[in-house]
Amino acid sequence: PGGQALRNEIAQLYDSIDPDQVLAHSGAQEAIFNFMNAMLDRSDHVITMFPTYQSLFEVADAIGCEIDRWYLTQDQHQWTIDIDQLKKLIKPNTKLICINTPNNPTGYTLTNQQMVEIAEIANQSGIYIFSDEVYKGLELDGIERKWFVDLYDRAVSLGVMSKAYGLAGLRIGWIATKDKEILEAMTKFKHYTTICNSSTSEYLATIALKNGKKILDRNLSIIRKNLDLSDIFFEKYRDLFQYNKPMCGPIAFHCMKSDLSINEFCNEMVEEAGILLLPSEIYSYRGNYFRMGYGRTDFENNLKRFEAYLIDKKLV
Ligand SMILES: Cc1ncc(COP(=O)(O)O)c(C=O)c1O
After folding, report:
1. For residue 136, what is the domain's CATH number?
2. What confidence tier does 78 reach under pLDDT thresholds 50, 70, 90?
C-alpha cells in the first residue's frame, strides 16, 4: 500500500481519512488503470466529465464499458457545468461517475457546493465517484476545495506529486477512499502492475509533503505572475482568441477564432518556432481549442516568441 510514513503524510491532507485508507501508487496513471480494472466490467455504464485526461475514459472503454460524456459547457469567458445534464445521463447500470477537478485541460474547478450536489446525485443511485484531483491546491480564487472523499463514502480521490507539486520525476501518486471493497481490490491488483513503489521516491515524496504548503505557494506564485502577462496578451489579441482564464492550476483551454485548423496551426508552430500548444484533437474535443501551460518560469520569454510568430504569420 506504500510506506507508513508516506501514508501518514498523505492522510493529513484530508479531513476524514486514516493512513490505512490510502494506497500509494507509481504515479496517478497506475492508480487510474488499477482502479478501473479492479472495479469495472463490460456491463457497467460510466459517465465521464469531458474534456478530460485521456486515460480517465480510455481505460474504461478498453474494458468494454459503455461511456457517456458529461460535457463542460462554455460560458462567455469561462467553463461551467450543467448538473441537470449529469442527472439525465444516469442509467440503471451506471457504476461510476468519473470527475476531473481541477480539470485537465480547461483549468475549471468545481465549487464545494457543486461537489456536494454531485455527491448527492451519485448517492441516490449508489454510484461510485472517481475524482482525479491531481491539480488541487492551486486554486486562483484562494478558496480551498474539499476532496471528494471527504464528502462521499463511495468516492475515491486521486492525488499525485507530479502536478500541483511539480515533482513529476518521483512517480508517486495515491488514492484515498473509505470503501473497503475498493481498497482490497486495488491492493490485490497492484501485485500485477508494480507490486510496490520506489522507496527512494516514497522517501522524497514524504519530505515534499511535509513542506507541501511552501511548494504549493511557490507554484501558485509562478502561475499568478504568468497569468498577469496572459491577461494583457489575450486582451490585446481578443479578436483572434477567446480567453478562458483557468480557475485552478497551470493549464487553460482557449479558443482560436479563425478558420485555420488548430491542429495544423499547433503542428506548424512547434516545428517552426518550438512552441508547444496542445490542439483540441488531442483531447478528442471538437472546435478550435488549444491547451496552454502557465507553470514555467520562462513563460514571459515564450509568450514573446508566440507573439512574434503570430505577427510573422500575419495572424495579428
Ligand atoms: C488530470 C491528470 N490525471 C492524471 C495524470 C497522470 O499523472 P502521472 O503522470 O503523475 O501518473 C495526468 C498527467 O498528465 C493528468 O493530467
Report:
1. 3.40.640.10
2. confident
